[in-house]
Write a structure and sequence with these properties.
It is a single chain. 31% of the residues lie in helices and 19% in strands. The chain is α/β, with parallel strands linked by helices. Helix 2 packs antiparallel against helix 3. The relative contact order is 0.20. It holds the Pfam family Band_3_cyto.
Length: 268
């Protein structure tokens, strides 16, 4: 929710281009870094994916068309109640804002969507993420008003991207996950090029929504999903898979190749 107009919207939190970059409070981008994930986020993502909804080679050309198809399948799969469809439709079609918009919005703050459609403040304390503390608050960030040096050269011709939408809604009984692979990539925001930003078409969509809970950090789940899609082997499988079972197997292979660093008091 923005501070100026108190309106709900999707706010860009991080981006992946070879490496991860996180948005600071002032709208600057932190230093690029190798993604590191919590064991909990990977474990919860695996559980949500196994129970989630997967649509492959969807022939839609707009975000509204994709969302309508996904919500219909959510109902068929028993992920959501029919009466929640319209509220989720409005939620998923909220305006998308970016790091460059922070100043005009007067800043942003976390919010939870209620059954009435109005936002509420999270009941649990909100602390800065570890990645924001390490990479956004130390040193100078990268201003979003122009493309960072060399970023356009890193984007290969015919590149495609994944849009990850995560958030908290209090009228859902449990977290719901949807994964969509489009038959053809769609241009979500063609105006990006006019603003000096690369307009990369979207091929995949991750949606993860659920109620607030002490053990659920949806931002970390979103980071896990985005990191998964930035990994070459899983991304290749995502393009080729013909079933949800194959995608779940690929996710399990990703987990098997991941290393966990236990807590330690030793210093280097």
């Amino acid at each position: 929710m923005d501070e100026k107009n108190q309106e709900l919207q999707w706010m860009e939190e991080a981006r992946w281009l070879q490496m991860e970059e996180n948005r600071g409070k002032d709208g600057t981008w932190g230093h690029p870094h190798v993604s590191y994930l919590t064991f909990w986020s990977l474990f919860e993502l695996q559980k949500a994916f196994a129970k989630g909804t997967v649509l492959l080679d969807l022939p839609e050309k707009s975000l509204a068309g994709v969302v309508n198809q996904l919500l219909d399948r959510f109902i068929i799969d028993g992920q959501i109640r029919r009466q929640d469809r319209e509220k989720l439709l409005r939620t998923l079609l909220l305006k998308h804002s970016h790091a460059r918009d922070i100043e005009a919005l007067g800043g942003v703050k976390p919010a939870i969507l209620t059954s009435s459609g109005d936002p509420s403040q999270p009941l649990l304390p909100q602390r800065p993420s570890l990645e924001a503390q390490l990479f956004c608050e130390q040193g100078e960030g990268i201003t979003e008003g122009y493309p960072p040096p060399g970023i356009l050269e890193k984007i290969l011709q015919n590149s495609e991207t994944t849009l990850v939408l995560v958030g908290r809604v209090d009228f859902l009984e449990r977290p719901v996950l949807g994964f969509v692979r489009l038959k053809d990539p769609m241009q979500l925001e063609p105006k990006q090029e006019k603003l000096g930003q690369p307009a990369v078409p979207v091929r995949f969509l991750f949606v993860l929504l659920g109620p607030e809970a002490p053990n659920m950090d949806y931002t970390q789940l979103g980071r896990a999903a985005a990191t998964l899609m930035s990994e070459r082997v899983f991304r290749t499988e995502a393009y080729l898979a013909q079933s949800k079972k194959k995608l779940v197997h690929s996710l399990e292979s990703f987990l098997n190749c991941s290393l966990v660093l236990p807590p330690s008091e030793a210093s280097l």
